[in-house]
Amino acid sequence: MFQPFQPSPPTHKPMFLMAIHRGIETTMRLLSVYCVPAGVALASVLVLMLWNSHFTGGGGQPLAFRAVADHDATFIPSAALRELAHAHPVDAYDTHLSEVPVWFAFHARDLGGIPDAVEFPSRHMVALRCWDVATLKMLGSATRGGADGALADAKAGFSLSLPKTRGDVLCRAVFSGPAHLTLLQWPADRLALSTQQFHRQSGLLDGGMIVLSLFILVTAVINRQVLYLQFAGWLILNLRVAALSAGWDIQWLGQQVPVEWLLPSRALTMALYAIATLTLYMTLFGADLLRTRFAPLLRVVQWLVLALLPCAIWLPYGGFLPVMWIIVAGSLSLMILGLVSVMLRSQSHVAMWFAASFTVTFLSSLTEVFAAALGVRELLGVANSVTAALTSSMLAALAVAEQMRVETEKRLEAQDKLQHAYEAMPVGLFTLDMYGHFLSANPAMLKMLDVVDIIPGRTAWKQFFAESFWITLHEQVHMQSDAEMQVVSRDGNRCFMVSATLAHGRIEAVMQDVTEKVKATEQLRFMADNDALTKVYNRRGIEKVFEDAVQRLAGGKPLSLAYIDLDRFKLINDLFGHAAGDEVLKQVCERIEMMLGGGQKIGRVGGDEFVIVMPDTAVPLATLICRGIVDRIGGTPYRVGDKAFHVRSSVGLIEVAPGMPMKDAVSTADRACREAKDGHSDGLVVYERGSTAFQEREAELSLVERLAGPNATEGMFLEMQPIMSLNAPMESLNFEVLLRMRERDGRVSPAGPLIAAAEKSGRAGVIDRWVLNTTLGWIEDNVENLKNTRFVCMNLSGASLNDERFVQDTLEILSRYTHVASRLCMEITESVALHDLDNTRRFIDQVRNFGVKVALDDFGAGYTSFSYLKELPADVLKIDGNFIVNINAHPANVAIVEAIVNLAANLGMKTIAEWAEDAATIRTLAEIGVDYVQGFAIARSQPPEKLLAASSSASFIKAEDVLQLVRTLGAPANEPALPEYSPRWDRH
After folding, report:
1. Mean pLDDT throughout 946-968?
2. Is residue 187 helix, strand or coil?
3. What is the distance between the alpha carbons of residues 129 and 151, in angstroms, rounded to a whole number?
4. Residue 83, CB-side half-sphere exposure with 13 Å CA sphere
5. pTM higher than 0.90 for the full model?
6. Catalytic entry in 531, 608, 768, 857
7. Percent of the chain with pLDDT over 90
8. Distance separating the N- and C-terminal Cα atoms of the chain
9. Could you confirm whether 608 is annotated as catalytic?
10. CA atoms of 315 and 265, how far apart (whole Å)
11. Across the chain, which distance is largest between two alpha carbons, in Å?
């Protein structure tokens, strides 16, 4: 309520002057508070009753017309005229929600030669075309998007400017909704004046309702009340519903609504209005209604009203209206009954005003429904959505005002409770002025500050916290509505979380003691990026360091990466326990960190493996640092208790190229480290950018990408290296298939890098599957020319052997080539075979069922064990070439090979010696009983067509001394015929 300013009069003024002053103030108050509003209201009523309207232009004259519906939408003007000839003249036509085109014809009156027009005032008309009946010439066309010719937009519908020559007019209209078609003939100037009045009334309604909504919205913001915000939204929707009823919804705030939005916006407006009305209703009376018998029904109503929204989106406008009418009529009836029940229980004035508001809306809605359904348009003259919107809005405003009064009383009561809560709150609550002085603080805050009390306006924030925290807090509350920051006490022992906001020129804040939480968070953050044992970075942490460093490469800064592996560190754990090993690892990291500087960081990526990222460090400097690390790690022993341990390391150092992922950098550095571990360069190997190792790595990645593509085997072909029998060299033609790769430029590249890339990428099965299928297909195609061929060897990758899909594909391929499968001998590397003995044995048994022979390749180079060998049903031992090359220069090699030959003979296996390069080697092998020999002394790999032209493996020998030796070996009868299915090769 308005309270006039009442100053205390000075004591020296005469009493009568004081009385005069009070009289003047009282008169001014009466005039401003009572007389002026009452006079304005009375004058407004008299003006409306007695004065003439500035926009009075009379009414249009109704025209009779004939109308017919085009149910199939197939009429043309001539056909429509024939149908209209049988129709009776009418003054109005109702579509009853039908959306089929309507054709109508009329004859305009002659108004004395003055310009005139015909108005089509239906707000549901969406398209219109008109023709001159005499000539069937189109007079114009119009849609909600625009008009041309003699047609134009007029009020909620369209108008047709009539030609001077009078004649019949034919029109075709399309409607959406419960349309009521009438025709009004106007003098052109009066129609313009009426249209101006139409838009003025629309503007008045828009302006009045929007101002009222803005008032409620401002009230909601000031009082922070969701109720007022809901009411503001409800008023806007109420305005749109009124505009829809009057046909004003084709514009909003003077802007034309796009035609494609018009019908969807009408449906959405009505659906949202229903939802907003029910939500406002439940906000005000929900708690009271839950105690009545209407509560279950109102829950159902909520679901039904909410369902209007998807109906408005998905249903056509004509289908949505009946659904909306039914739901809204039932909902409003139930809501009014609920309000009556609340009024009887609580005698609430708020409920009374809202009941009156909803009753007006309810009656108006029922009037609209009956008028549309029954065609009784006279009802709309009594009550429509425009008058209902204004009346219900005023009644609802009274209800909100009453609610505000009630809430003000409640607020005063709540202030006392709030003060008590402020005092008892377990978190620190305080207020600062803009200079950093405390204005208030609750007891919990005083306890955190460790003071008994504060002096408002004098106790400063800076007494307890650093000045930088105040500057940050001051900036944050001015830059954003809510600020949150962590502060530390001046002694550094306690941490606090402050949440603050700027309100009314003061900083209102909450403070919590988070000292323990901060300590725990810092520990978790450290553990996420650091190794728990050594405290250096873990894999995740060092990856972050690498990503930060690699970004600076674009600026021309160098970057080096080192991979460190401790040699034979596992022995310390095995012999002296993990406690001793852990202590050594800590000391190793300490020694490494002493050699690093600047941004150089170390990370532990394995049990005894480390990565060092050296930003801004060129390779020469990084080499010196790594050399120092190698010397420092192995220079002095590590003491753990009364024990001393010597630890050495191997380091691989690389120069990182721009764009290189960390996994590739670590892989390349690991490769250099393994090279250093093999005894090269005193424990340090360096790969500079552009070195062969990088080129090989890029080539390997290219091969991996190639193998992953759809043409993985493109360019692959086979060559064959003869394997000569030392028993019947002139009568046998055995060989091993070898994979080759022909590049797109015709160059032949070795298959070693391709196979290595396939094994690393898990694509080895692709290659082995192709080799197996191609080899068996070639044998089948040339079996008649391979009469002296007892076996054809092919290597099998260890990765394929452990690939169950490859195993199944192998068995399927063998089943297709059963008649030549017995000539195939699969070579399995000894180390792979012994890695998973059960899996190897199962595979051997499966392929031997097809007659396939199995050879253990590189025998003697791996984990040779007699106990394993007796468990494997192999047919051949292929002796590792390291024992064969220069066999005569090393007597030990002769003894080893002879032992392998005798072992194989006793187990019923044949032997093949590879890498035989001269006649002396072949002679020695023949003397100790080797069955077959393979190597450059016999022949290099040959194209398949040359194998078909040869009679034996000896046919390829070029060296004369080897030929002379071969002629002295064996006899034709010495080459045994291989049984088609046999667990062992026959011995002779």
Report:
1. 90
2. strand
3. 8
4. 17
5. no
6. 608
7. 22
8. 125
9. yes
10. 13
11. 157
